Every structure is written in structure tokens, then in C-alpha cells.
Amino acid sequence: MSLNDPLANALSTVLNSEKAGKTVAVIKPVSTIIKRVLEIMNSNGYVGEMTEVKDSKGNIIKLNLLGNINKCGVIKPNFAVKKDEYEKYEKRYLISRNIGIIIVTTPQGMMTHKEAKDKGIGGKLIAYFY
After folding, report:
1. CA-based torsion, 102, 82, 33, 73: positive or negative
2. CA 84 to CA 37: how far, in whole Å?
3. Exposure of 109 by Cβ count < 10 A (0-12 exposed, 13-18 middle, 19+ buried)?
4. pTM for the whole thing?
5. DSSP letter, residue 106
6. Is 90 helix (H, G, I), strand (E, B) or coil?
7. CATH number listed for the domain at residues 6-65
8. Which tens digits make up the pLDDT trace of 15-52?
9. Which helix (H) or strand (E) holds 38?
């Protein structure tokens, strides 16, 4: 397993654990970006609570799974998106109009594409899930 993209590894761990019917996914390594993406997934009801476990080799996250994820992944390259271009990427990455979320990093922090659209700000696309 290559560790060139820790976020992609974390999301594929979540997806693989979800498909295998597990109730907990163990994510390692941990970064602020990974934590923030998981918090957004949690606040939108796709995953359950996460607990960070301190470890001598670096922390791990234990994430409770709810069985709500059909697909998730990172968006590479991280496309820059203007405030009125979200529609194009929704069609490309999400299954249908009102299902799924794209995570965008903006000057005001990381948020869902719906929040960014409401606030009228652009940013860079990071990941998607539905």
C-alpha cells in the first residue's frame, strides 16, 4: 500500500470496511484534513462517531460505520471550482442531483459543496461520497 495520498487511503479503508460489512474502520495515519473530511461525513449522517486513539507510532482513528456509504473517493486533480460551476462537478461525481456530497476547501475552511454554493464561494474539490 503506497502512502502517497493518505486521504485516498483513508477513504478506501472506509469504503472497503463498509463493503465487507464491518462496523468499525481503523484509519491510519491521521491528519487534520482526514479528520475534517470524516467530521463532514459524520455531520451529514454517512458515518458514525470517531474516536482518536493515541499510539506510540502515530495516532489512529476508529470510525463507527452506519452502512450508509455506497461510494467515496478523492477527486484528483483537485479541480479549482468557481461559485457558479458546482453543477458541472455534481453531474460528474455524484449519482443524482440531491444525493451525495462533494467536499470543497475554500478560503473559509473545508465545507460541503451545498454550503459553498449557499455562501457563493468557490474553492478546490477534495473528495466526494454518496
Report:
1. positive
2. 23
3. exposed
4. 0.91
5. E
6. helix
7. 3.30.1370.30
8. 999 999 999 999 999 999 999 999 999 999 999 999 99
9. helix 32-43
